[in-house]
Amino acid sequence: MRIRVINPNTTESMTALIAASARAVAGPGTVVEAVTSAMGPASIESHYDEALAVPGILAALHDADGYVLACFGDPGLDAAREVAAGPVVGLAEAAMHAATMVGRGFSVVTTLSRTKGRAHDLAGRYVAAGACRGVHACDIPVLDLESDPAARKEVVALARHALERDESDVIVLGCAGMADFASAMSAELGVPVIDGVAAATVLVQSLITLELRTSTRGEYAPPPAKRYSGLLQPFERT
Amino acid sequence: MRIRVINPNTTESMTALIAASARAVAGPGTVVEAVTSAMGPASIESHYDEALAVPGILAALHDADGYVLACFGDPGLDAAREVAAGPVVGLAEAAMHAATMVGRGFSVVTTLSRTKGRAHDLAGRYVAAGACRGVHACDIPVLDLESDPAARKEVVALARHALERDESDVIVLGCAGMADFASAMSAELGVPVIDGVAAATVLVQSLITLELRTSTRGEYAPPPAKRYSGLLQPFERT
Amino acid sequence: MRIRVINPNTTESMTALIAASARAVAGPGTVVEAVTSAMGPASIESHYDEALAVPGILAALHDADGYVLACFGDPGLDAAREVAAGPVVGLAEAAMHAATMVGRGFSVVTTLSRTKGRAHDLAGRYVAAGACRGVHACDIPVLDLESDPAARKEVVALARHALERDESDVIVLGCAGMADFASAMSAELGVPVIDGVAAATVLVQSLITLELRTSTRGEYAPPPAKRYSGLLQPFERT
Amino acid sequence: MRIRVINPNTTESMTALIAASARAVAGPGTVVEAVTSAMGPASIESHYDEALAVPGILAALHDADGYVLACFGDPGLDAAREVAAGPVVGLAEAAMHAATMVGRGFSVVTTLSRTKGRAHDLAGRYVAAGACRGVHACDIPVLDLESDPAARKEVVALARHALERDESDVIVLGCAGMADFASAMSAELGVPVIDGVAAATVLVQSLITLELRTSTRGEYAPPPAKRYSGLLQPFERT
Amino acid sequence: MRIRVINPNTTESMTALIAASARAVAGPGTVVEAVTSAMGPASIESHYDEALAVPGILAALHDADGYVLACFGDPGLDAAREVAAGPVVGLAEAAMHAATMVGRGFSVVTTLSRTKGRAHDLAGRYVAAGACRGVHACDIPVLDLESDPAARKEVVALARHALERDESDVIVLGCAGMADFASAMSAELGVPVIDGVAAATVLVQSLITLELRTSTRGEYAPPPAKRYSGLLQPFERT
Amino acid sequence: MRIRVINPNTTESMTALIAASARAVAGPGTVVEAVTSAMGPASIESHYDEALAVPGILAALHDADGYVLACFGDPGLDAAREVAAGPVVGLAEAAMHAATMVGRGFSVVTTLSRTKGRAHDLAGRYVAAGACRGVHACDIPVLDLESDPAARKEVVALARHALERDESDVIVLGCAGMADFASAMSAELGVPVIDGVAAATVLVQSLITLELRTSTRGEYAPPPAKRYSGLLQPFERT
Question: If you placed Cys at E15, which of C170, D86, E36, F197 could pair as Cys (CB 3.0 to 4.6 Å)?
Answer without folding.
Answer: E36
